[in-house]
Amino acid sequence: MDFQKINSMGFGEFVDVFGNIIEKCPLIAAAIWSQRPFADLADLEKHVFDFIEALPQSGKEGILRCHPDLAGRELQLGTLTPESQREQRNAGLRDLDREERRQMDQLNCEYKKLFGFPFVIAARLSDKATMMRELARRLRNQPSQELCAALDEVRKICHLRLEDILRSPMDP
């Protein structure tokens, strides 16, 4: 898909196509639609990231709360968004053994209790062992440090999802 097509999209089509570049946050796509035309991927990302950066802390945490637990119940039930389903499956999270699943559940629970939102990592850039190590490591972060780390991961996920859209055929 090219930027001529993107910039000519109506509101509804734009939100349909870009509504999940930030997990379950179509409001962001709706908010940036009026800022077209976008010159390129970097320009589109800048608008998305500027929107997120302008949010109060509660809004940033809300974006993080839209993310599913890694290897959590939604993955097992198949109720993740298609993007998250594919990302977690390809990272090997669907194939955890009993002990790995227990450990992941325990770490996810500790993390949410400590920070108030799910652990977020760009699963496509990692594997299950690395994700578990990173989850355990980030549990030692201070809340403000972790908010920044989690939002950095959201940016990575967004970038990858935008690249997917741009590589897709003209009619998504």
- How would you state the average pLDDT, rounded? 95
Count the DSSP helices. 10
Strand content: under 5%
**CATH 4th-level superfamily of the largest domain:** Oxo-4-hydroxy-4-carboxy-5-ureidoimidazoline decarboxylase
Shape: globular
What is the number of beta strands? 0
Distance between the termini: 8 Å
Would you state the CATH class of the largest domain?
Mainly Alpha
The poorly predicted ranges are none
Number of domains: 2
| CATH fold description of the largest domain | UraD-like
Order of helices and strands: HHHHHHHHHH
Features:
single chain; 172 residues; UraD-like; 10 helices; 66% helix
What does this structure look like?
This protein is mostly helical and 172 residues long. It has 2 domains: 60 residues, no CATH class; 85 residues, UraD-like. Helices cover 66% and strands 0% of the residues. The chain contains 10 helices and no strands. Helix 3 crosses helix 4 and helix 8 packs parallel to helix 9. The radius of gyration is 17 Å and the shape is globular.
